[in-house]
Write a structure and sequence with these properties.
By secondary structure, the protein is mainly alpha-helical. It folds into two domains: 104 residues, Alpha Horseshoe (Serine Threonine Protein Phosphatase 5, Tetratricopeptide repeat); 253 residues, Rhomboid-like fold, CATH 1.20.1540. It is 74% helix and 2% strand. The protein is built from 20 helices and four strands. Helix 6 runs antiparallel to helix 7. It is elongated and about 85 Å long. The termini are far apart.
């Protein structure tokens, strides 16, 4: 792609964004004859977007088909948009063929989503066996997602457990337990880190075999459910969610059970349950089979674990419920980044190849989305910090009396 053709494509996008569709189409029509297939294909894609914006869906379909036929690196986008238009037209069988062509040409990281769309269309058209096979394909594509944060959290908890067990002194627990366990009077003395660090401890004060079961159960639960939430929200947001849920369990503990000593990752894990349950009930996401299977079981799983929480002595209900409430709130207020809604699959047409729906205006919406998500997380953090500060203040007031 030459500098001149790149500049002309950029100018046509600017004109499209400004609403000057005729002028943009005139420039793009010339570029469709360019010898570089990438230039010609991108020009056809943009012409399709221009026609779609004027409600000329037949013309848009023809242009996107021309982009697919042009070849080049953007041919798969042409096939995908042809498939999307065919779905909007109700031609589901034809859409399956177009999606298969897009899948054949698409980059590896795009094939999972396309495979899921094919699977849903096959299911909708009555091809149940082919649909199941396609869902299995989609699961394989999604299964490559590396849950780095989940693995790091598991490793951190295991390392802390090993070190703490090695440093244990009788019934007082290890040195890390003494320094990190959550206990409201110690938080009131300024040791605020305990509101988070308790979530990385698993050795009980009295020692014994329960410590092994405690960490094994928690790490197994984190191994099963953590990657699903991490894939939905991404590495950074997932870590923020996990820590906020751990903090939520700690804050409710010092509020409702100030005389209790609490440790363990259960509050944060219950928070992940809350996120998963809220997402499953509120969002209509197209998910890979593993994620769908896990999230669909969140309701019964929560009921069983809550019964276990209140029925078994020695379990911190405040830690579990605090984490759960924070996680549920996040799931309700913050939509996942890593899921596609059924409605969003077939609506809208991007104005630029490689961009999300909405084309050049997408970065603005994306930035607004990031700011909005950050505001929700910051708001939850402020509420938790304010609640913890109030609890500490109550202790200090009591000491002054």
């Amino acid at each position: 792609m030459t500098d001149e053709s790149r500049l002309r494509l950029a100018e046509s996008r600017r004109l499209l964004d400004a609403g000057d569709l005729d002028h943009a189409t005139a420039i793009l029509t010339e570029l469709t004859h360019h010898p570089d297939r990438d230039v010609a294909g991108e020009a056809w894609l943009l012409i399709g977007t221009a026609r779609y914006r004027t409600d000329d869906e037949a013309g848009a379909l023809a242009a996107w088909q021309a982009a697919a036929d042009a070849g080049g690196s953007n041919a798969w986008l042409g096939s995908r948009r042809v498939a999307e238009q065919l779905v909007r037209d109700g031609k589901l069988e034809d859409a399956v063929g177009a999606y298969r062509e897009a899948d054949r040409r698409a980059p590896p990281d795009e094939r999972g989503a396309i495979a899921n769309r094919i699977a849903w269309l096959l299911k909708e058209t009555g091809h149940d066996f082919a649909s199941r096979r396609q869902f299995n394909r989609a699961r394989g594509a999604y299964g490559s997602y590396p849950a780095y944060v989940t693995w790091a959290l598991i490793a951190a908890c295991v390392v802390v457990y090993v070190i703490d067990t090695a440093l244990a002194r009788g019934t007082e627990g290890g040195l890390l337990t003494q320094a990190w366990i959550l206990f409201q009077p110690l938080v009131a003395q300024g040791e605020w880190w305990r509101l988070i660090t308790h979530a990385f401890l698993h050795a009980p004060l009295a020692g014994g075999g329960f410590s092994i079961l405690h960490i094994l159960f928690n790490m197994y639960a984190l191994y099963l459910f953590g990657p699903v939430i991490e894939e939905l929200y991404g590495h950074v947001e997932y870590l923020v969610i996990y820590l906020l849920c751990a903090l939520g369990g700690g804050v409710l503990t010092i509020l409702a059970a100030p005389d209790s000593s609490v440790l363990g990752a259960s509050g944060a894990i219950f928070g992940l349950f809350g996120v998963g349950f809220s997402v499953w009930r509120r969002r209509h996401l197209v998910l890979n089979p593993r994620a769908r299977m896990i999230l669909s079981q969140m309701g019964p799983l929560l009921v069983i674990n809550l019964i276990f929480t209140f029925a078994v002595p020695g379990i911190s209900w405040t830690g579990h419920v605090g984490g759960l409430l924070v996680g549920a709130a996040i799931g309700l207020l913050v939509a996942p980044n890593g899921g596609t809604t059924l409605a969003g699959m077939w609506t809208g047409a991007p104005s630029a190849p490689g961009a999300g729906y909405g084309g050049a205006s997408q970065p603005t919406r994306l930035n607004a989305g990031i700011l909005g998500r950050a505001a929700v997380y910051a708001g939850i953090l402020l509420v938790l910090v304010a609640a913890a500060a109030w609890s500490v203040n109550q202790v200090q007031v009591a000491l002054l009396r």
